[in-house]
Amino acid sequence: MISIKGLSRKFQPSRGGEVAALAGIDLEVKSGEFAALTGPSGSGKTTLLFSIGGLLTPTAGSVTVAGIEVSGLSAPARARWRAKNLGFVFQTFHLVPYLSAVENVCLAPLARGRAGADARKAAEEILKRLGLADRLDHLPGELSAGEQQRVSLARALANEPAVLLADEPTGNLDGPRAAEIMDLLVEENKRGQTIVLATHSDQVAARAGVRIRLDRGKLML
Amino acid sequence: MNTFGLVLREIGRRKAGFTLACGAVALAAAGVVFTQTLSTAFNDALRRITMQMGRNIAVVPTGADAAALASGESGSLTMDVAQVEKLAASNVPAEHYMGKLQVRLTAEQGGPGILTGITADVGSVGRAKGSPKSPMGFEVKPGECVLGAAAAERLGEKGKPGARLTLMGREFCVAAVPGKGGGKPRDCVPPVGPVDDLRIFVNIADAQALLGAPGKIHTIDALGCVCPIGGSANYLKDIEKQIEKTLPGTRAVTYVSIASARLTARQGAELTQQLTVGALGLLALLVVAFYLLADVRERRAELGMFLAVGFSPGRLAALFLMKLLLVAVIGAALGFAVGTVGALEIDPSRMGLVGIRPAVDWMTAVWAAAGALGISALAGLLPIISAAMTDPADVLRVR
């Protein structure tokens, strides 16, 4: 499903020398796998996740997802590809504050050019599946942190993506809420969803089927 | 929810900024409409007033005494009446050409007065291109005469319309002067000046017959354009040269005071309008630009999320373009309404300005819309580029 070969990513900070966030990563994630990227802060987890999602272009190497070499696509083509193949879950949820829960979920189909009643119905179904049946028309500010992350997860799943990428999805949640989100992710994985999750928590990583450890931009085998 | 719905929802959340941007554009549009509506009325009044001042160019045969002719003296040198048509058909920037043939009348000839044969008002700038102006002044039918104010006063009841008058041994019927725009006819030409008030106007053919000068005229009077041509400071001289080139054997003389009065008034009005509109336009541009820049800055993370979800950079730009379009349309509509009502509510007569009648001018709606779109497009350029270039990896990363 995901094939990464010789992936390097360097950054040029405004002060100081060049920083290698990723250095020659080779990685395979199979379809239906639940992989957890772990490592300390600054180890390159988010950079690797964003590279898989086409939000960052590699300095060297290639990223292929579902047979498409993402790193070779133009910005508009990457956007189209993301809308069709990817779902993102972020640590800080990134919900649009002026849209209701169901409208936030509808953003994903809208990005694919689907804006009708069918898209809304599908969004409602996912939210119900994630336990938010009574929160459909609530604004993010009216939801708890755990509920907001479930809306974020629903938005990521709305387009039935090939891959779900989650960047510290439990980072802003307390223990019980974090466990709930992990339960939902495990549940989705059981339904066949390929998931790559970045976390610095061993407890969270333990729920994933595959653990990939990064340190200073390199895979630790 | 579609893309436009998304834009409306976002506007609903940030009402204050959107209202401020619409207000700024509306203010600029209102300024355009207000000044343009008043300016149109002012120019219309100015045109009427300056037309009453008469034509500002006289074309005479080379060697003729233009000053003597202007003071009503009989001319000695003549030129063909066909020259009027020739000049009117040219591209000389002047209009309302009229040929004249004149003679001072003695008491025995029916004077004192100046018998003036006139052609019809012919030609205008671009006549050859099919955009003729409405005739200026009046025509005199063969066998009739129209009296200047002083001539009518001297003749009293004998000079009223319908009366018979003998001039140089030939009888004429006094005719009324048609009222402007279908208005009430006047007994004689309104007072315009000591020389012209003494004139008794007859048809050119009658004058030619009386003076034994068939097909001849003494002068061609014209109304020169009061717009500096090609930025030339000495544009009146340029017009004179063009006329003399078009009609060899003639000399053109400009009555500078009339021409410059027209030009000064027109330029003054235009300058005031341009400064007002420019200042308001700049203000609106700055307000809209700052509003959008603040908007983009505040929404960086949101834009990054849109990109991560699969919106293309072009689609992000479209979100802001739609908002700008709404700002422009609402601002223009509001500005047109406020500007028009404001201009119509102004009563220039309170300031001693008579004859200025502001009216709804739909063309200003087009100008207001075009101006609002232009301001919005300019103001939105940098913010939209900035939005489209949002780096999602940078704004979505938790530090």
Question: Would you kindly provide a written description of the structure presented here, covering whatever features stand out?
Answer:
- The complex is a heterodimer of chains A (221) and B (399).
- Chain A starts with a strand and ends with a strand.
- Chain A is 34% helix and 26% strand.
- By secondary structure, chain A is of the alpha/beta class.
- In chain A, the strands form 2 sheets. A 6-stranded mixed sheet of chain A has the order 6-7-8-3-9-10. Chain A has a 4-stranded antiparallel sheet with strand order 2-1-4-5, covered by helices on one side.
- Chain A has a single domain (32-57, 73-220), classed as P-loop containing nucleotide triphosphate hydrolases (Rossmann fold).
- Chain A is globular and about 50 Å long.
- The relative contact order of chain A is 0.21.
- Chain A has helices spanning 45-52, 75-85, 101-111, 117-129, 145-157, 175-190, 202-205, and strands spanning 2-11, 19-29, 34-38, 60-65, 68-69, 86-89, 163-167, 194-199, 210-215, 218-220.
- In chain A, helix 3 crosses helix 4 (117-129).
- Chain A contains 7 helices and 10 strands.
- By secondary structure, chain B is α+β, with helices and mostly antiparallel strands.
- Chain B has 2 domains: 3-46 and 264-396, no CATH class; 57-254, no CATH class.
- Chain B has a 9-stranded mixed sheet.
- In chain B, helix 2 (15-52) packs antiparallel against helix 8, helix 2 (15-52) crosses helix 10 (313-345) and helix 10 (313-345) packs antiparallel against helix 11.
- Chain B is elongated and about 110 Å long.
- Classes of the chains: A alpha/beta (221), B alpha+beta (399).
- The A-B interface holds A 46-47, 50, 53, 55-56, 75-76, 79-80, 82-84, 86, 88, 90-92, 94, 96-99, 103, 106-108, 110-112, 115, 120, 155, 159, 167-168, 171 and B 1-3, 6, 9-10, 12-13, 301-302, 304-315, 392-393, 396-398.
